[in-house]
Amino acid sequence: MKSNKVIQFIIVIAFLLLITFGASQYQAAENNDGSLRLWILDVGQGDSILIDTPAHQQILVDGGRGSSVLSELSKALPITDKEIDLVISTHDDADHMGGLNEVFKHYKVDKVWLTGSVGTTKTYQTFLSLIAEKQIPTEKVMAGSTVSFGSLQGIVISPLQSYDGITPDSQNSTSIVMFWQYGTETFLLTGDAEIPQEQAMIARGVLRHADILKISHHGSRTASSEEFLKIVSPKITAISAGKGNSYGHPHQEVIDRLKILNIPVLRTDQDGTIRFDITESAYSYKTGL
Ligand SMILES: [Zn+2]
């Protein structure tokens, strides 16, 4: 009996150690294959994208609207990893910025990139208060700003003007659009940039091919012009939109345009969370995560 109890005790301790440390180490080890992970998180109607490098540096681009980003992040990151290296707030709309306020409360954020455009909502005021309270360093960016994490390099290609201190007519027009390169692989994250911003990027000559394109503005017809899609000529695209959302996103015109151009599309409203595993020479993806 006595030795049975000892064995039971050992089993219980081993199990506790496994759930405390084993799961996170397993996840961390999983990412040691040298691939970078690009997560299009299913946060309903909104955008939240996580880049997780092989060295476990994390960049979070937007946070969706509510707290769903937290459960999504807990799926993507080891339970022990509560630090995000860089948060990029593409623009001041609540379906991108709202969840970042939850992230600030639960994660240590090392830096925030924003345009400095002035929002008019309570969500925006909370965003500023939390950044001040947590003393998070911020950097106001526009086209030309760059960042690198190991062999991952990112460059902002829109907005082409500074919005620092400006209340814009349309928040979407201020969206931070970023071109990312990892080895030979490239991806373009567009926020909610619309056709006038697409035209401006084309006119300025800053737009180029990207292997993976996050379709702008949840697949709205106000973005993704034929000219834009032809220049980017992505191998694959992802749309972040909520199931049965009231905007009708993604709009059928955009879906049709992608079909005509023979560009495959993944959708969070149909495929759930999407993860691209990107090596320095190829990518693959999984859905329904
Ligand atoms: Zn949006």
Description of the molecule:
Helices cover 32% and strands 23% of the residues. It has 289 residues and is an alpha/beta fold. The protein has two domains: 1-33; 35-286, Metallo-beta-lactamase, Chain A (4-Layer Sandwich), CATH 3.60.15.10. The chain has an eight-stranded mixed β-sheet with strand order 8-7-5-3-2-1-16-17, with no helix packed on it. The protein has a seven-stranded mixed β-sheet with strand order 9-10-11-12-13-14-15. Strands 4-6 form a two-stranded parallel sheet. A hairpin with a 4-residue loop joins strand 16 (274-278) and strand 17. Mean pLDDT is 92; it is low at 15-30. It binds zinc ion (ZN). The site of zinc ion has 7 residues, from helix 3.
Brief rundown of the structure:
With 289 residues, this protein is α/β, with parallel strands linked by helices.
Q: Write the CATH fold name of the largest domain.
A: Metallo-beta-lactamase, Chain A
| End-to-end C-alpha gap | 45 Å
> What is Rg?
20 Å
Share of β-strand residues: 15-25%
Low-confidence segments: 15-30
What labels would you give this structure?
289 residues; alpha/beta; eight-stranded mixed beta sheet; globular
